[in-house]
Amino acid sequence: MTDIVSAAWVADHREDVRIVDVRDAWEYDGLGHLPGAVNVPFDTFRTGEGEAGMLPSEDDWAAILSAAGVTADTDVVAYDDHHGVFAARFLVTAELLGHDPARLHLLDGDFSSWQLERETTSETPEVASTEYTVSPPDSSPLVGPDEVAAAADDPEAVLVDTREDEEYAEGHIPGAVLLDWRDLVDDETRGLLPREEALDVLESVGIVPEKRVVLYCNTARRISHTYVVLRHLGFETVDFYEGSLTEWEAEDRPLATGLDD
């Protein structure tokens, strides 16, 4: 499964992994980046034209990873400067399009936390391109709106809205509990809360490992972070509503309002 790794781990393994910086090119070039990191800006792999929500096409994704020097056997570490939420989306995209989850890693923290204690560079590494081939997985955590609606009424499942309080109050899928994705982030370290604290936060809203968890937000970016965190914490059944509220509302499905569903 995709895991979360420390800055020390990345520093020790950077010769053996492909580090991917998903910030804008001006940040990568102008503010510096982790040594050895290649730049794959978020907007280059984010699309609204694919059949599955915002996922890029298989051809586009193969071209992106090929240019980044990634092969099917490459271990990839991704980071951003927003507590990992954009980087998590890169990694979830890789998983959904068939890259081995065991080879996908999210930096615990982000560029800002890294540069406080470790070196950065403005040098762009020379990377030999590859011929990456997308191999869709046999099984997927992706679910559609009918499965989401059913999960809201299933006592063995918990439907989770990972947006902010105000967004949830304005309109959410009936039966969903609220968990702002940032509630699992430590503001000081800019990374994941300590394990027991994170589990306590999750349990406080009914998210426990024994239940099937179904995640949604607006466009599947924020749930990417929560998905990676839950899998890292050992949750085995985590489903991913790629269409999220964008699709739900487009199909004119019902919404609940207020903070108490």
UniProtKB/TrEMBL annotation:
InterPro entries: Rhodanese-like_dom, Rhodanese-like_dom_sf, Thiosulfate_sulfurtransferase, Thiosulphate_STrfase_CS. The keyword ATP-binding does not apply. SUPFAM superfamilies: Rhodanese/Cell cycle control phosphatase. Residues 120-141 are annotated as: Disordered. Keywords: Repeat. GO terms for molecular function: thiosulfate-cyanide sulfurtransferase activity. Residues 13-123, 153-257 form the Rhodanese domain. Pfam families: Rhodanese (PF00581). CDD domains: TST_Repeat_1. This is Sulfurtransferase. It comes from Haloarcula rubra.
